[in-house]
Amino acid sequence: MEIRIDEFIRGAKNAEGLTVIIDVFRAFSVACYAFDGGVRRIIDVREPEEAFELRNKFQHETFLAGEREEKIIEGFDAGNSPTEILTSHICGTTMIHTTTAGTNGICNAIHATQILGAGLVNASATAKYIKQLSPEIVTLVAMGYRAECSAEEDLLCAGYIRDLLEGHNPDIKSEISKLRTGSGSRFFARENIKHSPPSDFFLCTDLNRFDFAINAVVSEHGYAELFKIEVK
Predict the structure, then answer these.
(1) Structural domains in the chain?
(2) Per the confidence metrics, is the pTM higher than 0.85?
(3) 72: which strand partners?
(4) Which residues contact 212 (CB under 8 A, 6 or more apart)?
(5) pLDDT 10s digit of each residue in the chain, 232 long?
(6) Sign of CA dihedral 30, 32, 37, 39
């Protein structure tokens, strides 16, 4: 198994083989909590306008979640926050999700043979699922902060998944703890409390909380539907 690590939208566009789009803070953490909360479907889109269009097409109840500049998009039901997901009525809804980095990474992985979404909360399950498939090439794409700057948490997650795939079982608890004063410090800034509360940091760094992988299937229309895959 050849394992590659890349970053940003560029990395998603260049990714080959089974591709894992990694966004710890916060896209795929949000997706995991949404699935765990009983959401019916999750649709990833590139732009907010697509989310509004899809909401108008669907006959069943929808829930719009996402961010730009880390803040909730006007007209959406929630931001890109696992805390908001846990406190919202999402069970049975179709969640339409758009973010600057994670969901756009999914939609841009045009050369991938299969796409997964991952964060620290489902990293081990993701690695276990990949091992079961045993692909020739695995590309781990750390989406980074706003898909522009390297993010400690995404690179940590990518390295952790790589190590698990190579048969190692690293203890990364100390590295996760350091995120609080590193890339995760923004969750503790007073000015960010409303859209990026401290609870988001702890929810996103709850290592291996979920035992499922997330598979993404991109449609001919350019958006992607996410599927929860239980990993035994």
Answers:
(1) 2-230 (3.90.1560.10)
(2) yes
(3) 67
(4) 32, 35, 122, 125, 228, 229, 230, 231
(5) 999 999 999 999 999 999 999 999 999 999 999 999 999 999 999 999 999 999 999 878 999 999 999 999 999 999 999 999 999 999 999 999 999 999 999 999 999 999 999 999 999 999 999 999 999 999 999 999 999 999 999 999 999 999 999 999 999 999 999 999 999 999 999 999 999 999 999 999 999 999 999 999 999 888 999 999 999 8
(6) positive
CB atoms within 10 A of CB 30: 33
In the chain, which ranges are E strands? 2-7, 17-22, 41-44, 62-68, 71-72, 94-98, 112-118, 137-142, 212-218, 224-230
Q: Are 49 and 174 in contact, with CB atoms under 8 Å apart?
A: no
What Rg do the C-alpha atoms of the chain give, in angstroms? Answer: 16
* Rounded Cα–Cα distance for residues 228 and 118 (Å): 11
8 Å CB contact between 153 and 205? yes
Tokens at 118, concatenated: 């991952």
Share of the chain residues as helix, strand and coil, in percent rounded to the nearest 5: 40, 25, 35
At position 179, the amino acid (one-letter code) is: L
